[in-house]
Amino acid sequence: MIVNxxxxxxxxxxxxxxxxxxxxxxxxxxxxxxxxxxxxxDLICAGTSPEFNKTLEEVLEVPxxxxxxxxxxxxxxxxxxxxxxxxxxxxxxxGIITDLHKERNRILRLNDxxxx
Length: 116
Fold this sequence. Notes:
Distance between the termini: 37 Å
Oligomer: single chain
Number of strands: 0
Mean pLDDT: 90
Radius of gyration: 16 Å
């Protein structure tokens, strides 16, 4: 991906939106998933909720495993059901995802301790 050095954020946003749309057209994302990702991209790039950005970054930082798949699906469902234009709803989602992320990390830590 080539990023314009004068307008790197705009170029990155455009490229991400293009990739999301291409995945949707190829059928690798459902229409709902693509729309959700585009809405989240708007929210993240707008920077209107630094707490949301930080929470999402923390969740994406550590890959899950088969034991956290259910929590990962709940997080995905929570994000897909969120109206990114409602800051009250976004704030609630930050709390929900933070709690889910703590549980996810607990499961991963237990797996590490048990060697599995």
